[in-house]
Structures are given as structure tokens and as C-alpha cells.
């Protein structure tokens, strides 16, 4: 998978050179490039923002640098992509909420482009023009406001990248985890069996794997019902 990120803080993504995603980059499973938006300005001050039309606080990111940055990444009409057309994702508080389902879907794509806004956001025409030549999505990572898109893009790259076959050592570990089957994960324990007066649930030491699986499923349902009842599938909703 090819990933391009446009940002005024390209060094923010240097961290992707370590851990799982770092190895995925080295083995060619992931090709991540951060592009400095200021490289697409032409004034002495490398200006990327200006005051908002209609007034209001803060600054808005100018369309011209974004247009040139995306020109340098997206295929032109003549270079119609042989494979999957790129998806251009802009984090935004006003976006569709990012979910494990969306991560799974995006992990199937060949080319993702992320646009990191700053200030009070990006001129709307950037999204409108990009939509004439690629699939464009505004995506929120939660109902709170960040200072820019970089943290959100990092979270999405990690959530998507780990689903790419070969990136995570043991693919089985991707199955039994929160949100993968729609429920929150069960509690985990490891040695020692007793720690500061706290015992591991005896069922986990029983060796009875059918009973352990049943216990874990019950824990998932109880935890989801308590913490995230909105995630419960209809057949598990409490009877009214
Ligand atoms: C656009 O509306 C805004 C209003 C006030 C501040 C900001 C700051 N800001 C700039 C670019 C940007 C990109 C993403 C996010 C963001 C995403 C999530 N889930 N929370 N916050 C926030 C961003 C934007």
C-alpha cells in the first residue's frame, strides 16, 4: 500500500520509521511519504494560510498550495490508475467517524492520501476540486477538537496499516480484539497467577478451552453492555 501525507509538519511522521510500521516500510509492505505543504508555496514567507472570507477568528489554509501538492500526488486523467484509484482523506471534526469497519475497508485500497489541516481548517474548494479527480472523505477520529490533522492521520495509519497482511506478526491476534467482532475485548491476564492479592480467574487455569471461550464471550458481552451499549448487536440487546 502507498500512503502519501500532506502536512506542514512532515517531521511529525518520522515516528513511523519505528515499530511494526517501520518494519512494514522496510519490507515494502507500506510505502509512506510525508510531503511538506510549504514546498508548494512560492512567496518568501512560504505562506499557507490567510484570513477567512466573511470574517471570524483564526486563519484558513489557502487553496493554492493544497492544489499543487495534490497535483503532485494524484494521477492526472491521462495517467488513469491501472489499479485502485486513490482515496483522499482529510481529518476533520465535521467528518464521518473513523471505525474499525472503515479501517478494514481502507486497508483493502492500494493508495491512500491524507491531508493534514491546521489553523481553523482548509478552504472548502480544496475538497471540492479534489473530488473531481479522486474519492474524498472527511473523517473524524472522535467528538473532540484537535489542533490539526496530524494526530488523527497517525491514528488512522496505525489502525489501517496493522490490518495489512504481513504487518502484524500473528494475524490471529487481529481477530480477537475490540471492535473486530463488534464487541469489546475480554480482560487479559498473564503470570503470576497471584499478584498483590489479586488472583487470575480460575477458569483461565482450568485447561477447559470450551469453558474458557464461553467465559471470554460472556465477558465481552458484559463489558460491551456496560461500557458501549451502542455497540451491542440487536440479538444481544436487553429485552425492554
Ligand atoms: C475544522 O474545524 C475546526 C474547528 C476548530 C479547530 C480546528 C482545528 N483543526 C484544523 C485542522 C484539523 C483537522 C482535524 C481536526 C480534528 C479531527 C477530530 N476528530 N478532532 N479534531 C481538527 C483540525 C478545526
TrEMBL record:
It catalyses: guanosine(37) in tRNA + S-adenosyl-L-methionine = N(1)-methylguanosine(37) in tRNA + S-adenosyl-L-homocysteine + H(+). Keywords: Cytoplasm, Methyltransferase, S-adenosyl-L-methionine, Transferase, tRNA processing. It is found in: Cytoplasm. GO terms for biological process: tRNA N1-guanine methylation. S-adenosyl-L-methionine binds at residues 117, 141-146. Its main location: cytoplasm. Residues 1-232 form the tRNA methyltransferase TRMD/TRM10-type domain. One of its GO terms (molecular function) is tRNA (guanine(37)-N1)-methyltransferase activity. It is an enzyme of class 2 (transferase). CDD domains: TrmD-like (cd18080). Its EC number is 2.1.1.228. The keyword Lipid biosynthesis does not apply. The keyword Transferase applies. One of its GO terms (cellular component) is cytosol. Specifically methylates guanosine-37 in various tRNAs. Belongs to the RNA methyltransferase TrmD family. Homodimer. This is tRNA (guanine-N(1)-)-methyltransferase. It comes from Herbiconiux oxytropis. The lineage of its organism: Bacteria, Bacillati, Actinomycetota, Actinomycetes, Micrococcales. The gene is trmD.
Amino acid at each position: 500500500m502507498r500512503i502519501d501525507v500532506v502536512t506542514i509538519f512532515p517531521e511529525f511522521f518520522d515516528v513511523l520509521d519505528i515499530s511494526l510500521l517501520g518494519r512494514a516500510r522496510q519490507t515494502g509492505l507500506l510505502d509512506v511519504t510525508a510531503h511538506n505543504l510549504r514546498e508548494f508555496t512560492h512567496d518568501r514567507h512560504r505562506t499557507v494560510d490567510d484570513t477567512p472570507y466573511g470574517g471570524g477568528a483564526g486563519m484558513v489554509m489557502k487553496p493554492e498550495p493544497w492544489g499543487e501538492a495534490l497535483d503532485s500526488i494524484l494521477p492526472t486523467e491521462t495517467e488513469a490508475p491501472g489499479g485502485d484509484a486513490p482515496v483522499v482523506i482529510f481529518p476533520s471534526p465535521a467528518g464521518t467517524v473513523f471505525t474499525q469497519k472503515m479501517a478494514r475497508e481502507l486497508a483493502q485500497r492500494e493508495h491512500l492520501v491524507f491531508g493534514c489541516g491546521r489553523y481553523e481548517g482548509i478552504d472548502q474548494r480544496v475538497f471540492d476540486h479534489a473530488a473531481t479527480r479522486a474519492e474524498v472523505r472527511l473523517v473524524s477520529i472522535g467528538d473532540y477538537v484537535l489542533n490539526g490533522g496530524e494526530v488523527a492521520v497517525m491514528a488512522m495509519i496505525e489502525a489501517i496499516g496493522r490490518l495489512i497482511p504481513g504487518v502484524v506478526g500473528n494475524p490471529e491476534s487481529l481477530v480477537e480484539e475490540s471492535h473486530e467482532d463488534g464487541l469489546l475485548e475480554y480482560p487479559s491476564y498473564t503470570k503470576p497467577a497471584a499478584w498483590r492479592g489479586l488472583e487470575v480467574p480460575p477458569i483461565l487455569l482450568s485447561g477447559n478451552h470450551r469453558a474458557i471461550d464461553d467465559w471470554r464471550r460472556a465477558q465481552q458481552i458484559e463489558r460491551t453492555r456496560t461500557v458501549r451499549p451502542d455497540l451491542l448487536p440487536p440479538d444481544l440487546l436487553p429485552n425492554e
